[in-house]
Amino acid sequence: MQAYSPCHTPNTHHKFIFVSVESDHVSIYKYRVYRSANIGIFIRSNDEYVFIPKGFAHSKASRLEEFLSARSVRVSIAHTRLLGPLMVANNHGIVVAGIIEDDELSSLQRSTGLNVARLNSRLTAVGNLVAANDRAAIVSTLLDGCMDTIQDALGVKAVQMSIASYHQVGAVLSCTNNGAVVHPNATDEEIERISSILEVDVEPATVNGGVPFVSSGIVANSKAVVVGSLTTGPEMVMLSRAFKA
Fold this sequence. Notes:
It is built from eight helices and 16 strands. The protein is of the alpha/beta class.
């Protein structure tokens, strides 16, 4: 079912585009943030919380809470609003970049009650290097020496691999407890391995009109999927199939 609902608010950088697909399983919505379709750069979510940058408009935060059936938490990491590349979360915990300030870390812990771990690595884009659901985490081969931190924080086993010749597994893979989508150049063997590790079905897909770095245009949990505003109809169909309940 398609239900078009423009909700433009003057003088704001956030815009709700339309509710695109609803079913008995999962709802998919189109959205953009700061005039960008790359919503995954700015927002993260698990089943209980949607993590948004500080300064995000209250009306738009409420909209995301409605979409994802999750409570919004305002987050700053190293005083930036680029939350997607700097954190990874499941329903057990959160891993954040080592550059997070102590007060930012404490605030995130207080707001969620989750275990929040700072990754002790020179590589700061943890969100691009780790993908996780509540069953497992897939970790870049670049993060040697960080596996225990990731496993302890997220409460799951962690497995290192590359995908489609990329070390940035968190950028090319987006997953929930219901399903996952991956870079279209992932091999059949890689897809089978990802599916076995995360215990979900995995589909090759793109977002925002052909972007293969799927996490840049997806914010998802087990209840709903929000995608960038440039995502096409065929892409929506593939995402709907992948993130089934």
